[in-house]
Amino acid sequence: MKADPIGVLTGSHYLDGDHACAEGAIAAGCRFFAGYPITPSTEVAERISARFPYVGGIFIQMEDELGSMAAILGAAWGGKKAMTVTSGPGFSLMMENIGLGAMTETPCVIANVQRGGPSTGLPTLVGQQDIMQARWGSHGDYEIIAIAPDSPQEAFDFTIKAFNLSEKYRVPTMVMLDECVGHMTERVIIPPAEEIEIEPRRYTKLSPEEYLPYKPCEDLIPEMVKAGDGYNVHITGLTHNEKGYPIINEEVQAVLVKRLVDKINVNAEDIIITEEEEIENAEVIVISYGITSRVARMSIDLARKDGIKVGSMRLITIWPFPEKRVKELAKKVKAFVVPEINAGQLVYEVERCACGNANTYLVPHYGGGVHNPQDIFDKIKEAMK
Amino acid sequence: MMQTQKEHPIAPFLRMDRIPHIWCPTCGIGTTVKCFCSALSNLKIDLKNVAIVSGIGCTGRVAGYINIDSFHTTHGRAIPFATGLKLANPKLKVIVFSGDGDLIAIGGNHFIHAARRNMDLIIICVNNFIYGMTGGQVAPTTPLTANTSTTPYGNNEKPFNIPHLAASCGATYVARWTALHIRRLTRSMEEVLQRKGFSVIEIVTPCATLYARRNRLGDGLNLMQFYHDNSEIKHGADTKDIDIEFQKKIVVGKFIDEDKPTFLDLINEGLSRKLGEKFIKYA
């Protein structure tokens, strides 16, 4: 399915990452937005509030992030593509209903323009400290999808991708921007609507008598309906059977939770996007994401000038983590160097997948700025020893 | 002689495959569900266009028993979920059916803001003065001095007066009944199903297992007798005068019924005025 031209501002623009994210959402067909102001994400909400009246969307500024997240779930069941946007503290408040979204398999998109934490931390300065929270933040076992753009262009492109994945896999999907990407202004090319591929909602063709809301298709994803279609569905955050009815026992729990986890992991290869550069013959690979990958490019150049064979793996999809590929690479290289604007989060995934076959070096940064490229370069040199 | 078993008149409105329900004997929630189903039945509403949203708690289970599109959400978040549902599909009549703790304590912020916006939602708030599902703890509605499992020496916090809270925040329909007033409650439900705007019905209901037992008030029948002897119908009463005190008079009736533009009315009107033909009117 192609994008509805009404929401696509085809042309060449000069946009910051937040505005590009908003345009990506509108191009993807988002027509319901609920959010609460928080720096540095507010510009996404502002742009959507200005643009929605022209495209038939409804914008509501809720009383808090708890309500924003609940509202987008309701809107999804009302038949809209829905989104909210936040940053650190608001992301924490959304966790409860992200869990409800995962449990009820509700397509929706959450953009998190990351700032430095913990707590109120650095409201106006960059961080990449919500990486683990994105995956583990709500209680219980489930999987989500998270994508980290590194430029305004990618904020546009991958917000569309996030909507598409959230519909395909019926899962809350996160666009993990950071303050730098959100606030940097660059050229953004918005293609014509007919060049934008849109994943339609997986509405069932079965009759109400035949339909079971949580009976999975072959790819483990159940088909959806919306309220008002006459299917009289019951949707609950309690452990439920295929009919959607609450059943509180370990057998039904096992079937449901296993599927919620498997539906992402089994389809991981279809979901994961990474960008590899000079991986062949590399002795060290820098694994990075978001704004840090742009800083790492300079460090990689410095290392190459120094004669070091260094490759780059940029994670566009953070979750699910490209486990298979990192395991493969670990057998070929000496070491991975992982710069992140945090005290070490994704580095643990790299270390786990390296399985002792390659060394793993963290280059931490505690937030408020980006790495000095020299620090990453120094770590590459250390890794070569 | 052959006896044919007749179907109960509200059976078509219930998920009979989920009966028996989880509520205790003499709990008042069942009565409120019966009244709600009767209202739907009396009005012959197309059930396709009705959706129900509940939060968590004893009353939170209502969504699971009514045979329409029904959503059992998180604790306190029924109203914002319903807000999204309603705005996404304004054709739907959306009812939030939940308890006093869910709507007024953990969900209190959403309650007051949805009232302020005059969001087109029906709020049915079952008030049993206590947290039932978790075993009888103090609620934001527990009358002063009442005993609960977390106020073993009596409650020292002043409770909310739900109709007054709703009215102060902008609700355009506010009524209170008890589980005894089935005819009047059903009529109130019919009224709100036919109007637009943020409509609140508080229903005082017996919780014999916890509230009555802890306060030695007898069983469900004794509580119904108490409502019979102590409730006073006062339509149009000033909501600030209708606090509920421990085992004192309960003022019931319809206090507010005003026609005011809803959230969506104002959005559509304001944006049309400002943007003219470029505005794509919502819904």
What does this structure look like?
The complex is a heterodimer of chains A (385) and B (283). Chain A is an alpha/beta fold. Chain A is built from 13 helices and 16 strands. Chain A has helices spanning 17-27, 42-51, 65-77, 88-104, 131-136, 152-169, 179-183, 250-265, 268-271, 291-305, 323-330, 346-354, 373-384, and strands spanning 11-16, 30-35, 58-61, 81-86, 108-116, 122-126, 145-147, 172-178, 185-190, 234-236, 274-277, 284-288, 310-315, 317-319, 335-340, 359-364. The radius of gyration of chain A is 21 Å and the shape is globular. With 283 residues, chain B is an alpha/beta fold. Chain B contains 9 helices and 10 strands. Chain B has helices at 29-43, 78-88, 100-106, 108-116, 162-169, 182-193, 208-214, 220-230, 263-275; strands at residues 50-54, 69-72, 93-99, 122-127, 130-131, 137-138, 173-178, 199-204, 231-233, 250-257. In chain B, helix 6 (182-193) links the parallel strand 7 and strand 8. Chains A and B meet through helix 3, helix 4 and strand 10 of A and strand 2, helix 2, helix 4 and helix 9 of B.
